[in-house]
Sequence to fold (666 residues):
Amino acid sequence: MQVYDMPDERGHFGPYGGIFVAETLIEALEELRVMYERYRHDPEFLAEFAYDLKHFVGRPSPIYHAERLSDKIGGARIYFKREDLNHTGAHKVNNTVGQALLAKRMGKPRVIAETGAGQHGVATATIAARLGLECVVYMGSEDVKRQAPNVYRMKLLGATVVPVESGSKTLKDALNEAMRDWVTNVADTFYIIGTVAGPHPYPMMVRDFQSVIGVEAKQQMQEMIGRQPDAVIACVGGGSNAMGIFYPYIDEKNVRLIGVEAAGYGIETGKHAAPLTANSPVGVLHGNRTYLMQDKDGQIIETHSVSAGLDYPGVGPEHAWLKDSHRAEYVAITDEEAMHAFHTMCRTEGIIPALETSHAIAHAMKMAAEMTPDQVLLVNLSGRGDKDMNTVARLSGIEL
Amino acid sequence: MSRIQSVFAKLAQQHKKALIPYITAGDPHPRHTVELMHALVKSGADMLELGVPFSDPMADGPVIQRASERALVHHVGLAAVLDMVTEFRKQDTVTPVILMGYANPVEAMGIETFVERAKAADVDGVLTVDYPPEECTDFVALLKRHDIDPIFLLSPTTEQARIDTIVNQASGFVYYVSLKGVTGSQNLDIVQVTERLADIRTKTSLPIGVGFGVRDAETAKQVASIADAVVVGSRMVQEVEKSSEQELLGNIAALTHELRVAIDSN
Fold:
């Protein structure tokens, strides 16, 4: 029985979430809220969504027992939910398909998105091409340089990529710029946010579209091993893949939920992207209230992680709530630990994981070692690592 | 009667409209802010809107964002801005000062501490761009208890019922955003603004300020013919941006004077 019923009607998860935007965006959000309420339980819309998830994305994604990795560690058995096998190579596409179908229903011919590593941008450009929507993607100019292959991929798919030169020239600035586009072009434009952050209804809507991950996993685990895992582990930047797999498990109280943030060079150095683990102060950014990395004046500070997808100063408000209510636990993994897990995963299982995902794998490896073979860990393998070849090679001192 | 109310009352008697220039505190350098404020008043401003720098000014266009970035190089945060107002008040106890900024610096200071310090600095109004009325009832109550006017935005897309909600929370004046977009976007559509203002006036007797698209003296004049106050932000900040340190005060005074003359020529 589903007893967890967050958020409230104005998007609050306890003290977190909400709608913190200028008056100029209020009506756009209200229109979106009303339209999403209309379609979120509409059988025809859900059937269309399910059809595209199956035939375009390739769902359901399998569950995979990582036997060699489990044996090597000699503790708990590790299973992976293979979101890396989705079309475009990550979980991001589940949400972009959902939002793009909603955009179509709302009669919006133009979609915009922000992107950090480029995965959400690629996933948005992909579904925009499939549905014949105009697509503009905002990306920090630093990220444009770091993620050239994804920029080219978006262009191949017909999207316009706009480099953002303001602020720290990364994901948070791309988000600011996308909001500005939206407020100016709200009549014909749908803003596809890629994570479980932003003003209501985004955190709820993105979670709902991503929850297909957890819904499938629950059924698949039951079929495969006859029970649910002892813990579900996922990496957390904004937190969409984690919310997607956690959400259907929230009322399964015997299943621990563990979110893994990016500790960068180490929490104690201040150069990280782990607001929950570091107990950062609560504040308001990008339309919602949440834990936020900021200085004493309330200015948002620059974050660091080897993985661009986790390099964000805030976190989705529902994670903030799950932390405070002790339903989920949050830990952090350093760049170095993530890189070690990345290489182990490549050589032991023949799977090249995304650097974001490598954080979750690293924590699973730590945990598994302390557990016994009758215990089970389920890790959300949120994306594949092809996009990270340049970063990994550079860190290994290799010129590609 | 609050300082903001008395200024509007006095101007109404003289059949004049208020000019409210905006500058970002600490731009181009914190040492200029207080003297810029005095220069604005001297050359025709009736009230001042002082921007609190923020790292992520989502509702502002590139011009005001760059101003924030220039100020943040010198670490001008909310506490520093309040100190500037205190300094300004040593010589000027009549001109209303309205702080405009974002929620996070206020929450980082703590809303009670902020309101107490704002009162001590003799701030008259506070506009927190990303605090819609539903999300800041405690804050508004605190401001009102300290006789500081909470200023709210109304936009071209604000629904009828919502206008009532907002004007019931607001005091001092309401700020009508004259176009869809961020600060300093394009030129406003005066016909559309006229219609909206007529509508808003059926719901409130508060004075109405108009801003977000006032780019030159001609637009300021048009806006003054229908609104109670003209807010000029990005245009002001552009002038700050392009002026050398020697030209700064002169250029800002000249622009303010030009706007004053235009507004009074109706």
About this structure: Chain A has a mean pLDDT of 96. The longest strand of chain A covers residues 256-264. The longest helix of chain A spans residues 23-39.
